[in-house]
Amino acid sequence: MATSMGSLVLLCLVSPLLLPSVVLGHPWGGLFPQFYDHSCPKAKEIVQSIVAQAVAKETRMAASLVRLHFHDCFVKVGGPYWDVPLGRRDSLGASIQGSNNDIPAPNNTLPTIITKFKRLGLNVVDVVALSGGHTIGMSRCTSFRQRLYNQTGNGMADSTLDVSYAAQLRQGCPRSGGDNNLFPLDFVTPAKFDNFYYKNLLAGKGLLSSDEVLLTKRAETAALVKAYAADVNLFFQHFAQSMVNMGNISPQTGSQGEIRKNCRKLNNGH
């Protein structure tokens, strides 16, 4: 196996290790944790080393890799351990429109989010557990501005937002301009993978509308938010399982697809 940067990035694609090691007993459907044991015995160590370097240089990279896994099917930032099923090959094509249609948006309603997950074989537990990935990472002002200034123009924030939190956000996210200003999705521990995302929701301090609706729009999702806020180990357990579930969304294996030498393009250069 080549050890070029392209290949290392590829390994991040097929095994986004937020740190491996709990056997989950899940049917892996053609993928398995030992996929590289013979062809590249040090694959996990290589990935962990490169990811650790990347996160040390830019903390946001941890969140970017989780989201990359989300798009491809989401490091010492803490978090759960699990065996990552490997062997998912790269597709021979890509669809921006398909990605935009399938990936939940920051302003989607809860029924829309749940429907998008169900289309891919994921359930409500997966919705709430994977949303916990927002315990790390940042969001642009343009993704939540509508929650700070309602349509009547009176400057009042979304009633589900904590008043002091909304005022703090408005300081860096004006009514116009500053679209790309960044804000932590978890303002308490933005660089640590923990359950403060859920604790923030209970305090009215969830940044995105798609976060807030988990608590306010459906009893089943609200119960999970409260359970994860109270028990970080339960969150870690469910998050790990849901990451495996997501990695098993229609994987190409065997002779399907290809293993790209450069993740940015097909091997034939197109």
TrEMBL record:
GO terms for cellular component: extracellular region. Its cofactor is heme b; Ca(2+). Binds 1 heme b (iron(II)-protoporphyrin IX) group per subunit. Residues 1-25 form the signal peptide. It comes from the Eukaryota. SUPFAM superfamilies: Heme-dependent peroxidases. Disulfide bonds join 141-173. One of its GO terms (molecular function) is metal ion binding. Ca(2+) binds at residues 135, 186, 189, 194. GO terms for biological process: hydrogen peroxide catabolic process; response to oxidative stress. Its main location: secreted. Belongs to the peroxidase family. Ascorbate peroxidase subfamily. This is Plant heme peroxidase family profile domain-containing protein. It comes from Miscanthus lutarioriparius. The lineage of its organism: Eukaryota, Viridiplantae, Streptophyta, Embryophyta, Tracheophyta.
